[in-house]
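Cross-check.
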Amino acid sequence: MFSAPIQLFIALALLWAQLGAAVLVGLGIFILIVFIEIFIVRKSQMLELKEMQIKDARLKAINEVISAMKVIKLYAWEPSFLQKITKIRRTEVKYLGQVSYLFSAVLILWTVAPFFVMAATFVTFTYYGDDHVLTASKAFVSLTLFNIIRTPISMLPTAVSMAVNAYVSVKRIEEFLSEKEIDEMTVSKLPFTENENPIEIQHASFTWNRDDPSLLLKHVNISVQHSKLVALVGKVGCGKSSLLQSILGETHKVSGVVTVRGSVAYVPQEAWIQNLTVRDNILFGRDFDQTRYDEALRACQLEKDLQLLTAGDATEIGERGINLSGGQKQRVSLARAVYQDSDIYLLDDPLAAVDSHVGKKLFHEVIGKSGLLRDKTRILVTHGIHWLPHVDEIVVIDNGRISEQGSYEHLLDHDGPFASFLKEFFLHDGERKRASRSRDVSVSIAEIAAAAPEEEEEDEELAAEKAKILQRLASCTSSAHEAAAESPAVVAASPSQSSPPQHASQASSSVNSHCSDTADRLDSKRPSIVRQTSKISQLTSEKLPSRDEDVDGTRKAAEQSGRLIDEETMESGSVSLKSYVFYIAARGYHLGLMTIMAHLAYTAVNIASSVWLSTWTSDPLFSNASVTGNLNNSAYLRDINDYYLSIYGIFGAGVVGLLRTESISFDPQVFADSSVSSSDEFLRYHTDWSNR
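Predicted model, tokenized:
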């Protein structure tokens, strides 16, 4: 490609020796084509940039749909999301079509450029003077030189396309790499010392975007002592997770001071799992320590899970932990943090993804005062109020501000933000309980179990803990009786506690008795249904790894060894005729036939133009005139030249038309429409055949 300018220069110099100044006309046409190409390239750059942006939006939408496929299926949102993605795709195809048209124009221009240059040069040469006769020697030497020019010129469309794509990609990468980095001084990271508080935040305000004036967290003041367990509570979206991100230095600090002393381990709300083995996910690059590793597995309740896996902790985890449940992924993430043996642990609601029984074990054996992390500084984001009596300090966050903080006993001594948070929790919990009990009686038990597979019997100890919290809340504020009345299910979990006020029974009696009795019957049967559903799910999951054993013996061996991804193998040999037939069928037989015929016709016309040029130069009239120098009948010779040139021009127009026809078949919109139509015909044919 880099030698193309040198080839062009040498070929033009030799053409000058053959045809003289007539070469300048061809050179002018060549320069004109170059300027046209520059205009097309600039236009295509803008379209490529827009197409890339639309493609990013489409991929983002598809990733979101795939990630939330379970929710979309449950709510039957497939048509709306399909419509959204289809709309984005149509816009992308529109830009792809415009880019395709422009690049087809580039391809046509560069393909016919040597022909136009050659035709213009020959016409100018024959009309430049009466003594200029296009002999066979001049014609075929010039034709050879023009073919030499054709080679570097034919590379230019590919080079232009690659250059445009590279330019757009480099600009996008440059824009990303030129983004401002997060200031490393947002958080002052110091070595760990036992005499000073590991985490101190003083009058700090944070935002996600430096250019956005709205604050994420405002005037935060927190001081966490060594080996203390601090719980962050508040409504959904109030800023609990954002506070952990701010401690990690992932947000922009607007004002204040943030000091972190020691190493930090972070457990996100959504577990981050690598496509590695279970052991490698837990080690996370650290050296293997058998004792510490076994302690992490035991405390995080992973020992039984590893026994069920094919290869134990050597089992390979799929992309995003696809072969693990949500609870298993969260426990692997927690075990990874435990194994790191850091000084500070930031736990973003890790117990939400596990059931109450496992959650109780994780809290007491890992997070709580008797757990593995009892000597570490821990900040726990949680929505489980039954854990709050077991923490050292509670921080209540409301709308990006710390509304209250202190010990559990201190915060319950008065009717403050923490008490309001607990009342709101019990009110919503009571509403949820009543809603589940007043289901439509026409719904079958199986449908209820299938629609709510996550429901299970709550741990009795945790239910009693909630009842104690509610009783304590009722004793601290008279307004809490309303919350007690709205949550009869929680109080009923502890029979020894005092009964709710009178208006609670009045509220509950307003429910239709027939629906309540039916709901009671459903509730009495639900635990067994859930257990059966779980058993079926477990049996199904046990069968899933072997579903392809009869298809591929290699995969069976890989699954037995705990591997999910086989080593890629490369096929050797030539492309079979069957592959070409399938490709043509996928494009549509009409479009495929048009492409083949256009290409064959283009090749035939190209050969015919060379044959016609040979006929032109071998005409005896021109040969005798050039040999004898008899040019008296120059008008007649000029008419003959016009005849040959006109036919030669017709061949050139045919080349352009056939190239345009061939390029249409590669247009994305045409290709997509033809493929869909071909698929419909294929399905219709097989449906008709199967019905016979």
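Strands lie at 188-190, 199-207, 217-224, 229-234, 252-261, 264-267, 344-348, 377-381, 393-398, 401-406. The two ends are 59 Å apart (CA to CA). Passed to J.P. for a second look.
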